[in-house]
Amino acid sequence: MQLINKPNSVRLALAAASSSLLAGAAHAEEKTPWLVDSALAVYSESDSRVTAVEPIVALRKDMGGERMLGLKLTLDSLTGASPNGAIAANEAQTFTGPSGNGSYTAPKGETPLDTEFKDTRAAVAISWEQPWGERNRVSFGGNISKEYDFTSAALSAAIARDFNNKNTTLSFGVNVETDIIDAVGGIPDPLTSLKVGLNPDHKDGGSENKTVSDLLLGVTQVMNRHWLTQLNFSLGTSSGYHSDPYKVLSVLNTDGSLATNPADAASKWYLYDSRPDSRSRQSLYWGNKIHLTEDVIDVSYRYYTDDWGIDSHTLDFRYRYEFGGNMYLEPHVRWYSQTAADFHHLYLNKGADTNGAASTLDYASADSRLGEFTGTTFGLKYGIELGRNTEFNIRVEQYKQTSNAGAPATMTALKGLDLSPDLTAMTVLVGYSFEF
Amino acid sequence: MSIKLKCCALLIGISLLNGCSSLGVKPWERDLLAKKSMQPNGYPLETAADDHTYFSKEASAGGRGFGGGGCGCN
What we know:
The structure holds two protein chains of two kinds.
Chain A: H1 2-30, E1 34-45, E2 51-62, E3 68-79, E4 82-83, E5 93-96, E6 103-106, E7 113-114, E8 118-132, E9 136-147, E10 150-163, E11 168-181, E12 208-224, E13 227-240, E14 248-252, E15 270-272, E16 278-291, E17 296-306, E18 311-322, E19 327-338, E20 348-349, E21 354-355, E22 358-359, E23 373-387, E24 390-402, E25 423-435
Parallel strand pairs in A: 14-20
Antiparallel strand pairs in A: 1-2, 1-25, 2-3, 3-8, 4-7, 5-6, 8-9, 9-10, 10-11, 11-12, 12-13, 13-16, 14-15, 16-17, 17-18, 18-19, 19-23, 21-22, 23-24, 24-25
Chain B: H1 2-20, H2 44-57
C-alpha cells in the first residue's frame, strides 16, 4: 500500500503545490495595481507677469499580457500679464484689450503687458500599449485639450521593434493634431491697424484652425551595462492659422518715436501680427543615460531647425547623486539658444515697412519667442523612494531668457530704454507616485 | 540645412545599427539598466511639465517625443 500510495501522495502534493502556484499567479494577475503618478507644477514669472498652476495625474495599469492602459488628466490655470508685442516708448501707451471691453496703459519706458491675460486649460489623454508578436510593441493614444479660446484634439500611433537580444530598439511614431483658435474678440486681419477705443469692430470675429502632423524615428541602444543611448529624428509640418491674434508690432518714426496711426490722428500706430500659414520643423535629439557606481548622469543635445529661419541648440545635463536611504539630489543645467525667425521684427519702420496706411510686408511678428535669445535653466531636485513604485520628489528651477535685441543709436527717442527685457521665471514641481 | 540634417541622422543611424550587433549586454546584465533612473523617460510628468513650459516660451518643440502640443500658449 505504501509503495502505491507514496507516488500518489507525491503527485497529489505536486498537484496541490502547482495549483496553489497557479492560483497565486491568477491572484497576482487580478491584483495588478494601478500605478499613479501625480505632479503639481507652479510656474511664476517675475514682475507680476504670467503665473501658471498645473496639476497632473496619470494612471497606468497592466491589463494582463503586458497590455498597458494609461489615462492622464492635466489642468492648467494661467493668470497675470503677457507682453503684447509693442516695445517700450518714451511716453505712456494705452491699448484696448482683446475683448474690446477694457483698456490697459503701459507707463513711459515700460514694455506693454496685456493684463487681460487669463486662461484655464483642461486636457485628457488616453493610451494603450501592447506587445505585437515577439519583438514588437505597439501603442495608440488620443488627447483632447480645451481652453477658453483654443481647442485641440490629437491621435497618435507608434511601433517599437527590438533587435540584438533587446539591446537595440527601433521606434517609429506618428501624431496628428487639429487645433481650433477662437480668439477673444475675434481673429484680427493680419497687419491691419489696432484701433484704440472700446468695442473695436475691425476683427472678423470668426475662428481659425490649424493641423499639425509629426513623425518620429528613433533608435535606442544599450551600449554596455552602464550606458543607454537614444537618437531621435523628428519631422513636423503644420498648416493653417499660425499668427498670434493678441500680438501687435509698434510702428516707429525714423527717430524712434511712436508713429501716429494714419487712419486716426489721435492714436499711435500698431499693426497686428502676421505669420506664414505653414511651418515645417525638424529636429535631431541625442540622449544618454550613464550609470556610474551609484549615481546617474543624464545628458542630451537637440538640434532644431524650421523653415521660418529658426535654428536652435539645446544642451541638458542632470546628475543624480544617490546619498543613501533611497534618497537622491539631482542638479540640473539646461542651455538653449535660438536664432530669430526671418519675419521677426522688434518694431516696424514707418516708410521702410509701410506705404500709406498699409504694411509692405507679407509677414511680421514682434513675438519675443520668435526672436533671437538665449535661455538658461538651473535646478535642483530632491527625491526619496518610499517603496516599490512609490516616490516623492520636489524640484525647484530658475529659467532666464536674455536677448540683446535693440535699436540703432540714430533712434534717439529710444535712448536708455530696454527694448528686450530679460525674462526670469521660477518653477516648483512636486511629484508623488504610488500604487494601489 | 534640412538635407544636411537628414544625411547626418541617416549616417549616425546606419553606423549605430551597424555597430549595434557588437554592443549591448546579456539578459543577466540588465540590473542597472532596469532601474527607474536609467529609463529614457523615467519621470514622464516632469517631462510633460517641462515640454509645456518650453513650448510656451521658446520657438522649438519636440525631439525627445511629441512634446508640447495641445496648447494655445504658442
